[in-house]
Amino acid sequence: MSNAPNALQALNQWAPVVWLKVNPYAYPMLEVVHILGLALVFGTLWIVDLHILGALRVLDVQQVARQILPWTLAGFALSAASGLVMFTTAVGDLIANPAFVLKMALLFVAGTNAAMLHARGALDTRSRLTRAQALFSIIIWVAVITCGRWIGYL
Fold first, then answer.
1. Taking the complete model, does pTM exceed 0.90, yes or no?
2. Which of 16, 62, 120, 140 gets the most CB atoms within 10 Å of its CB?
3. In the predicted model, is pLDDT for residue 122 greater than 60?
4. How far is CA 36 from the centre of its chain?
């Protein structure tokens, strides 16, 4: 544990992190990438979840989910990578920020919910459990977005 402050200090002085902090365009552009990734994740999940909840019955939910999942994963990868880079610029502040900690916990819950939903096999829009998980997914992702916005204010 005594090495943690040294590791944080070394990370804080690492050239790419310093560059992110001093370049007036780097961090804001990283935020744009992060938000675009999040929009891709939430937008694609929104379509599948609303379909499960009965809002888009015109389309086959299996086909929609199969076509959209790669976009969801790409958006998540984009958000995770940009978020990790942003995290390196303020590790100490972020791990002490309750909104950040809650956001990370909610991301874990969102991933667990999605894994459990897809582990059961084909999406059954008639299943109460599947519909409950779709509604829960929307709620979790709104909470993730809310916590993400609150990070800068707490």
1. no
2. 140
3. yes
4. 11
